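Here we describe the complex-level prediction in full. Unlike the single-chain runs in Section 2.1, the ten entities below were treated as one system.
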Amino acid sequence: MLFQVEMTVKLPPDMPAEQAAKIKATEKAYSQKLQDQGKWRHLWRVAGSYANVSIFDVEDNAELQKIVSGLPLFPYMEISVKPLCRHPSSIRDDDR
Amino acid sequence: MLFQVEMTVKLPPDMPAEQAAKIKATEKAYSQKLQDQGKWRHLWRVAGSYANVSIFDVEDNAELQKIVSGLPLFPYMEISVKPLCRHPSSIRDDDR
Amino acid sequence: MLFQVEMTVKLPPDMPAEQAAKIKATEKAYSQKLQDQGKWRHLWRVAGSYANVSIFDVEDNAELQKIVSGLPLFPYMEISVKPLCRHPSSIRDDDR
Amino acid sequence: MLFQVEMTVKLPPDMPAEQAAKIKATEKAYSQKLQDQGKWRHLWRVAGSYANVSIFDVEDNAELQKIVSGLPLFPYMEISVKPLCRHPSSIRDDDR
Amino acid sequence: MLFQVEMTVKLPPDMPAEQAAKIKATEKAYSQKLQDQGKWRHLWRVAGSYANVSIFDVEDNAELQKIVSGLPLFPYMEISVKPLCRHPSSIRDDDR
Amino acid sequence: MLFQVEMTVKLPPDMPAEQAAKIKATEKAYSQKLQDQGKWRHLWRVAGSYANVSIFDVEDNAELQKIVSGLPLFPYMEISVKPLCRHPSSIRDDDR
Amino acid sequence: MLFQVEMTVKLPPDMPAEQAAKIKATEKAYSQKLQDQGKWRHLWRVAGSYANVSIFDVEDNAELQKIVSGLPLFPYMEISVKPLCRHPSSIRDDDR
Amino acid sequence: MLFQVEMTVKLPPDMPAEQAAKIKATEKAYSQKLQDQGKWRHLWRVAGSYANVSIFDVEDNAELQKIVSGLPLFPYMEISVKPLCRHPSSIRDDDR
Amino acid sequence: MLFQVEMTVKLPPDMPAEQAAKIKATEKAYSQKLQDQGKWRHLWRVAGSYANVSIFDVEDNAELQKIVSGLPLFPYMEISVKPLCRHPSSIRDDDR
Amino acid sequence: MLFQVEMTVKLPPDMPAEQAAKIKATEKAYSQKLQDQGKWRHLWRVAGSYANVSIFDVEDNAELQKIVSGLPLFPYMEISVKPLCRHPSSIRDDDR
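The structure predicted for the assembly as a whole is:
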């Protein structure tokens, strides 16, 4: 089941550079593991921003909540969620 | 080059059913031709709405404008556009 | 899987009374059938408005889309959707 | 008398983990006591967020105020309130 | 139990003057009957607008819904509702 | 001359409890003196919030400004003001 | 007593030109009479729009309401009102 | 050439009183000098707020920018700007 | 003197195609004449929309108003205006 | 390929003057180098604000992201991006 999630990162400007670097590294590893598993299906940067557009493929709402609230950057992000489903005009098999 | 485009359809409630059906059929054909060509890369329905989330893969801004303004439903839609680019944490080759 | 859906009805003031009455009757029957099936779990009027707060229990996003877009009043409503899941502090078994 | 209440938690990122844990534990106990009493009728997590949707069953506006303003997380939340009442299409006896 | 209700009237500019006058007369009678009964406790015009601020004193949410949805101008108004209760600093006995 | 004023209090979460208690006590005394004088005509809590709805009866805009800007909580509040006047349908003598 | 009022005109595009011209002429006469009387103290066009910024000098809220609701264009305008008073740094005698 | 400028002051609540007093005194002197020169033509307090409505009479956009960005309170204000010009219905010679 | 102006066209969907074509042709001629004169300095389409971003170079606010309100599409557009001036970091002579 | 970018600077009021001056100097050098290269085509100050309107001429979305996210003031700015393309009514060769 697919969800579009948009995340905008708002790190406090006075966060020590070292702490920021550490969170970002943990976030990257966390994200890549989920991509490997096929649960984080797409991840794009929105050009000109510190934001991304992501497509998640999860079992249900509960798994979405588990994945998103587990993001190391979760406390520093504004997040919006849209549930997706197959569009009647889509010709792509995996756009379910 | 990728763009995320969100479209919300607002057909006037008093449009004759036949006219609406015709526009939607033309829209479907238009959309599927662009999907075939690889220019309309993804197309999802936003669940609980008359809206979609789409990913376009175009040459440049001008081609995006040509495709979007050519949509048969263009006069009846609210449209938002986000330019996308590769995310440094993405592991997927075609998420450029 | 649960979703909260808020619907605000905006009937055109010049819709003939008979037509409005007919749509509302169809909507009521449609809604009560889904309540009977357990898919429309709760339905409340928001006091002082022509709006409701609803809780749906569906298989997945696709079923939500099918039910909501099938509402006879769908072309006349503003609709917002929130995916729900179990809250770690809930003590109620069916608040999943 | 029913109210829908949506709460979004905004803990300051620099709150010490121990203090946050303590507030959350107090909040959980406070919430579960009210659920036991039947006053906090439903409690759901909004998937992909640090927010909840709740349904309260209280005597009157004053009791709602007493319960909500007594929440341990009250100073850290954005809260919206909607008064609910029976929907004419509802078939569920306790959706009053 | 008190509610603050703000109503903004949006009559279609092309409504025939006679029809508008009739609705307004019915609205006035409806409003004055409820004021007589003590249910519509205050009614003020917002200066420089076609809007009012009202205070209702009703049994519960259901009665508020019954009164507000019964307003002859209901289909032509934007309405917002705030539940009120006694303020701990109030010295006025009937500001409950 | 009447004004509706809505005030939402936003105390910084890290304000020492003693300081907050002192400001609130001063605010209460200030408010009750103005209520005694008939200038602060109504004061209600908005249920489920740290906000109030107030009706002021003042000589002119300048007196409104003097009273509101003199509130001990003024630096910590979001405030909106609506000038009121008699509604043609009001039957209450002092709703001028 | 001064009020700043901003008015944005939204004439329906299908209003017959003759009717529009007539309303605008009546509006102009109405406005100039009030300017003559000193009640409509300033009137400026907002450059690049069909909107104005006005300063009214009236007895009280009731007179503001009488003047503004009497505007021939009143049913076709979005209007916002701000009560003004003397600024402590003003050196201009009539900026009261 | 005239501009309407609205300024809302947002001083950090924890700014030392002495520092705030100093900035305000500098602001007052700065403002009164410009009023003396005829460049800051009107200055009103918005009643019930820490905001003002001002009318500036400047040579061009560049002078507006120089004056506004030179305000001692500039870093602490939300500012909106509207270019003004003569209204065809104005009868006042200096409302150009 | 420079202004950035953003215009979004909202033609009524039921405007006859011939009438729309005529207005657009007039608009194009009007726009190109002003571009020739150097008053409409830049004109870009916003990709994926029926909107443009324009830079005007005019004598003063009054000339901006004259040009913008004279646009054949003026009654059908949402328009926002930003006064521009030279940026201290600009190295381009005509970005004044 | 052109993009309009609007940037509003929000420096924390308590940033030491020296640190602010250093960031601004770096920003200026960074900006002027990109102007020299033809990538930052226009740069204007929005009069009455700490904001700018810029036009970038880049290879693709990825280069836009690289340039904007590399701005020394990037962590302190609110940024909005609009993709531009040639307008059919433009007569200026380089407004592509």
